[in-house]
Design goal:
441 residues, 13-stranded mixed beta sheet, five-stranded antiparallel beta sheet, alpha+beta, Tachylectin-2, Chain A, 28 strands, globular
Length: 441
């Protein structure tokens, strides 16, 4: 969610007043100076707001969801029309190698706690401005042994940017992590079947958070819409028969997904029971910006959060329990009830994780390292580094996920080296992990 193009759409208050100062008549300097002082205080919050960020979680109103399933006949029709392959087939048919990290990319890694694992993308993915990394999950979510079949897998979710021309189209970069010294990956497009299964279209999702449970892969959708979460299945990964057409769905040459070899089909989605969500209100229907799976609860559960760039708004955390078939527990009418609803004082929440009664939330800053806070209803704490600052997490961090089989918390950084250079910052895209035991108590 900490996207450069997103920030350009939600222009920070201090940039607005600086622009006004540059163009304003000289007869109003006192008003502008006062506004700049107020804005400067708001801008300083990420680095100095530990008094507020250290406030414990508080309870708030629960928000329900409603399940909508893709017609089974539509999925069957596509499975019959195209080769249906396993995710294991995909990650053993990789097309790109992960790399070691450059000096700039290493600068994006957390200062405290220190990353014990890290890897970076090939030059095209590291530098692209048409796609942006967001959510992350692993086979440690998916299955009891931490693997999917025989494979150790990390899934990195990306969304299309304005420069792609298909904003919030979505893809997954599936990393084969069987050998941590030689990870590699293959990209899959995310698609939505039509009602009959005669074709499909691109799924619209910002991919801010992901969870993987059994065959189901959950991703956060888009802000300011009624769709909360999209659900895909590893049982419905299709191999395209037309890999040359720059289009998606049925073509004259077969079926295509913008030249990608594989596409994964949506098996359903959850809407907000309250209607369209708002990214400008922390009291109305929330827009889920990130999510992750909590395996420490019985049953397992999904936790979500919301992102606000406005520091006066405070994001909420929700918990939804799992039911049958690796889907959220729903009534006969499809209603999914939240079992927990909490409010955090941490601003700019990019990622959320929950384990054994504790929440971990990742904060981002536009200019410095982010912060990682451990929160309960009793306390809120963060690591410190350097001269005592809490700005110790990754630079431009995104979602969080916990691989219980290894004890590692995985995340990734968003900005490309080009994005960083444009803002005179030294940073880049990295995928990294820290031990859960090293997070603030």
């Amino acid at each position: 969610m900490d996207c450069p193009e997103y920030k350009s759409r939600t222009r920070p208050v201090y940039e607005f007043w600086i622009a006004r100062w540059r163009t304003a008549p000289m007869r109003t300097p006192k008003v502008l100076l006062l506004a700049l002082a107020v804005a400067a205080g708001a801008l300083a919050l990420p680095g100095t707001a530990s008094a507020a960020y250290s406030d414990p979680l508080t309870t708030t109103t629960k928000q329900n969801l409603v399940w909508h399933a893709t017609p089974a006949s539509a999925l069957t029709a596509l499975d019959s029309a195209l080769p249906n392959v396993s995710l294991n087939t995909v990650v053993n048919d990789t097309s790109y190698a992960m790399t070691g990290c450059t000096t700039a990319e290493k600068a994006s890694l957390p200062k405290a706690p220190v990353a014990t694992k890290s890897m970076c993308w090939d030059a095209d993915r590291a530098g692209t401005k048409t796609w942006s990394p967001q959510g992350i999950t692993t086979s440690g979510d998916a299955d009891d042994d931490g693997k999917w079949g025989d494979d150790k897998i990390i899934l990195s979710g990306w969304h299309g940017t304005d420069e792609l021309g298909r904003y919030n189209d979505a893809r997954i970069q599936a990393i084969n992590y069987n050998d941590p010294a030689k990870p590699s990956y293959r990209m899959l497009y995310l698609a939505v079947p039509n009602s009959t299964g005669s074709s499909f279209s691109a799924a619209q999702a910002h991919m801010g958070g992901m969870a993987w449970y059994g065959d189901k892969i959950y991703v956060t959708a888009e802000g300011n819409t009624s769709t909360a979460i999209r659900v895909f299945s590893t049982k419905h990964i299709l191999q395209m028969t037309d890999t040359t057409s720059n289009s998606i769905g049925k073509t004259s040459g077969g079926y295509a997904a913008y030249t990608y070899k594989y596409a994964m089909m949506q098996v359903g989605y959850y809407t907000y029971a309250g209607g369209t969500c708002s990214m400008a209100s922390d009291t109305g229907v929330p827009c889920f910006s990130s999510m992750s799976l909590d395996r420490s609860t019985t049953p397992a559960s999904v936790v979500t959060t919301e992102y606000f760039s406005d520091q006066s708004l405070h994001g909420r955390l929700y918990r939804y329990p799992m039911g049958t078939d690796f889907l959220l527990s729903a009534s006969s009418s499809g209603t999914v009830g939240a079992t927990e609803a909490l409010r955090s004082s941490v601003g700019n929440m990019q990622g959320v994780l929950s384990n054994n009664g504790k929440y971990y939330v990742a904060h981002s800053s536009a200019t410095i390292n982010g912060q990682l806070w451990t929160q309960t209803t009793a306390k809120s704490s963060s690591a410190t580094c350097g001269t005592g600052t809490t700005a110790c997490w990754a630079v431009h961090p995104e979602a969080l996920t916990y691989d219980w089989s290894t004890g590692l918390v995985w995340s990734q950084s968003e900005w490309s080296t080009a994005d960083c250079s444009a803002k005179n910052q030294v940073c880049g895209r990295a995928v990294f992990a820290v031990p859960l035991s090293s997070l603030p108590a």
